[in-house]
Amino acid sequence: MAERFSSILVANRGEIALRVIRTAKELGYRTAAIASEADRDAPHAKAADEAVVIGPAPVGSSYLDMDRVISAAKESGAEAIHPGYGFLSENAAFAQRCADEGLVFIGPSPRAIELMGDKAGAKRAMLEAGVPCIPGYQGTDQSDEVFIAEAEKAGYPVMVKAAAGGGGRGMRLVRSASDLPAALADARSEAENAFGSGVLILEKAIEDGRHVEVQVFGDAHGSIIHLGERDCSLQRRHQKVIEEAPSPAVDADLRERMGRAACEAAAAVDYQGAGTVEFLLGEDGSFYFLEMNTRLQVEHPVTEEVTGLDLVALQLKVAQGKPLGLTQDDVKLCGHSIEARLYAEEPGAGFLPSTGPVKLWRAPAGVRTDAGIETGGEVTPHYDPMVAKVIATGASRDEAIRKLTKALEDTALIGPQTNRQFLRSLLKGEAFRTGDARTTTIDRSEAWKPEPARLQHLALAAAIIHARRRDENAAAASLPEELRGWASSEALYSSVVFAGEDDVAVRIAEAKGELVATLHDRSISVRFVSLGEDQGLALVDGTRIPFSFTVEGATIALATADQDLTLTDLTQVASGSGEAGGIGAVTAVMHGLVTEVFVTEGDRVEKGQRLAILEAMKMQHEVTAPVSGAISALPAAAGKQVAGGDLLLQIEPDTEE
């Protein structure tokens, strides 16, 4: 068969765009990227042979705009489009549009996307085919009254889900009838914004199951095989955090049964390309169909690692109309692979997305890292907060856990806050180590809080500041390096005061190449084995501590294996006092869009009451009242874009508060 295409437009961004571009270029394809104006200098735009800027930062004006994407394909001379995941990857209308425009859509047929990409339609089809499904409602009547009645039939708790899309968006767990109307409204709004459809389904919530999914692959010649399963049970608010292959809960017999069911589901729609059939696995080995993702998954690397197959290469092969070239007997699982998703977010603040310039990015050595960021770039509020995936593979599950834990310790992202230490805590937790994690493990655990700054790390940060000041001053005075830090009488010293709830004063004394930091009536020795521009190795009280850091003005950011700190040296700045607005000020916790406001000026509100909805990074966040009182000012309005720290509304607290 003659080749159908030799050039590819990658209609995505971030790490998945880079992932597709890498394989496509290895196979000799010419690649083109699309980029919003905010992404014109992003890594994926620079990695492709050509990049086309298609519009402003908002996804509706760029990555989700079919006309602009198609125009970019034609402008770049691309003959095929790879959609990655998210954005237009599961949009049947886009797949059909590609066909109408003479472009090859690297994915399944529009019919398969339409049926299997819609949770309601897919579930109806699976029920007709006899595939076990979770009890619930997937009808066309979308009235609140019907959902309320169906929830009573299923029994609480129930799960409200967007019929289109995935990734935890448009999904709400509802434990009581009184909470259902608000959950339906929020889910509809979020789903409409994320997927362009507010259609919902309802399912009985099975809270102690495992999320196990099966990777399937089909070609145009009728072959459909599976490539084993992935366990994605460690989730936070229905968003996968850590995934692994194979599942610690699946034996050979169960793998064969789940794989056969997944292939039958794919065969029902003549599936072609890469797809994933997701199941909820019970303790007794029973499993229930959840949905089918008609695209490449975020977690596909763990399948690649244990099968030795390049799934993007297989996608391109199938899209060329060629046979898959594999039978089920050819698929062998070897070893164990685990992936951790690195998010720009603040776990200690309810996992709020974190944005800002990337001051330093350093990927770990010895493992696979799929990342979409670079030093000098920026994490913006316009897109998903996942910035990288760290994947470790070993001969056994224990080995993979050890390698991934060490890799996360060696990872450095300075700028936005990240979930790096939270991921380490999950890997060390008993539920994951024993292979007993469930979809509710994280959400049922106590809120995670970062460990307070250790004295050794405060001493190290102060020592870095001292050494840099010393070297800068010496360089300005043209002092030879061997005389830096030397004194003819007593030791040289300097002072650093780190800001905090209780400011920490650190006195640094230096003599004969050794620094001694004194804080909280304790002396800690620091000796630098090496100290570069943004990384080093120190002996802190004799313990070897590798570290990465940045210093900007009075701020030092320090990343070690087990802590990420951002500290302000008050000796370099004048400290401020108080917070504008006082206890009743309600401010935006991040850059975003105010989508709804539920109060008006003069209203009286109770502590904890919903006040507004703030949307950022395609997620919706409730703004609640910190105190009871009356609304005295209301700058916020629906449709208004706000920056982190902007005043949304002011509450005049009740006198007793």
Quick take:
The protein is 26% helix and 32% strand.
Structure description:
- There is one protein chain.
- This protein is α+β, with helices and mostly antiparallel strands.
- It has 5 domains: 7-106, Rossmann fold (3-Layer(aba) Sandwich), CATH 3.40.50.20; 135-204, Dna Ligase, domain 1 (2-Layer Sandwich); 210-444, D-amino Acid Aminotransferase, Chain A, domain 1; 455-568, Glycoprotein, Type 4 Pilin (2-Layer Sandwich), CATH 3.30.700.30; 582-653, RNA polymerase II/Efflux pump adaptor protein, barrel-sandwich hybrid domain (OB fold (Dihydrolipoamide Acetyltransferase, E2P)).
- Helices cover 26% and strands 32% of the residues.
- The protein contains 16 helices and 39 strands.
- It has an 8-stranded antiparallel beta sheet.
- A hairpin with a 2-residue loop joins β11 (224-236) and β12 (239-245).
- α12 packs antiparallel against α13 (420-428).
- It is globular, with a radius of gyration of 27 Å.
- Residues 123-320 form the ATP-grasp domain.
- InterPro entries: ATP-grasp (IPR011761), BC-like_N (IPR005481), Biotin_BS (IPR001882), Biotin_carboxylase_complex (IPR050856), Biotin_carboxylation_dom (IPR011764), Biotin_COase_C (IPR005482), Biotin_lipoyl (IPR000089), CPAse_ATP-bd (IPR005479).
- Its cofactor is biotin.
- This is Biotin/lipoyl-binding protein.
- Residues 4-447 form the Biotin carboxylation domain.
